[in-house]
Write a structure and sequence with these properties.
This protein is of the alpha+beta class and 243 residues long. 44% of the residues lie in helices and 21% in strands. It folds into two domains: 10-146, Jelly Rolls, CATH 2.60.120; 157-236, Winged helix-like DNA-binding domain superfamily/Winged helix DNA-binding domain (Arc Repressor Mutant, subunit A, Orthogonal Bundle), CATH 1.10.10. Strands 1-8-3-6 form a four-stranded antiparallel sheet. The chain has a four-stranded antiparallel sheet with strand order 2-7-4-5. It is globular and about 55 Å long.
Length: 243
């Protein structure tokens, strides 16, 4: 859904909640209406921060449109991109539900519209509709599983497989089919891809240049399109090349 102004109508918000938001899936109309009544509307411009790593978990957020980059700074000062979040996904849930500081920083990579619920209002919703609390726990579990998979990749997989896995996840999250393949539907600088995969900008650039020459990817410096999805899967899963 794309909003053309700062003013988001109640009907637009309800439409967003009805269309595949896991946190509110299966809830009756009464619950959705109540959730909307407790939400605040937010708009972020590109580059604006939603929350910072280590900050107090004051609220959690549902993305209506736009996209956030979730990044973390290690104790050694290394910048790591954890994931990107797009429409119908929530941010800050792990911190709010777990009562811990925000574990990462959330930055808008494009104009982004959100709904915000404070911790107190989340507690009110969860108490009245236990299905919301159960859904939040499932979302937290899914995020933890994804982090475990990525940690395993960082420790065991060669860098090419890590890059292929990262692109595969982004295709699932934000893939848009075009005439030539599947484009990741937001700007993806090479440095960001390096921070996602625990490698260097030089290695990412060299790898993508080779894959471009082989017809696996395309798109230029700020965009990535998967031209040969099966070829990318073969690299990610270390399968033999097709005969």
């Amino acid at each position: 859904m794309v909003f053309m102004s700062d003013v988001i109508s109640r009907n637009e918000m309800l439409t967003s909640l009805r269309t595949g938001v896991p946190l509110f899936e299966g809830l009756p109309e009464e619950a959705l209406q109540h959730a909307i009544s407790l939400a605040q509307r937010r708009r972020l411009e590109q580059g604006e921060l939603l929350f910072r790593q280590g900050g107090a978990p004051e609220a959690f957020f549902l993305i209506l449109a736009g996209r956030l980059k979730i990044g973390q700074t290690t104790p050694e000062g290394q910048q790591i991109i954890i994931r990107y979040l797009g429409p119908r996904e929530i941010a800050g849930c792990v911190a709010v539900c777990g009562g811990m500081p925000y574990p990462a920083t959330a930055e808008a990579i494009e104009t982004t519209w959100l709904l915000e619920w404070t911790r107190a209002r989340m507690a009110e919703l969860s108490g009245r509709y236990p299905a919301i609390a159960m859904a939040a726990m499932r979302i937290m579990g899914g995020r933890m599983t994804e982090l475990q998979d990525r940690l395993r990749e960082l420790h065991t997989d060669p860098v090419e497989r890590r890059i292929a896995h990262a692109l595969g996840r982004l295709v699932v999250q934000a893939g848009r089919r075009t005439g030539s393949g599947i484009e990741i539907d937001f700007p993806l600088p090479r440095r960001d891809l390096a921070e996602m995969t625990g490698t260097t900008l030089h290695t990412v650039s060299r790898t993508l240049a080779r894959w471009e020459a082989e017809g696996i990817v395309g798109g230029g410096r700020q965009r990535v399109a998967i031209l040969d999805p099966l070829g990318l899967v073969r690299i990610a899963e270390d399968l033999p090349a097709a005969s």
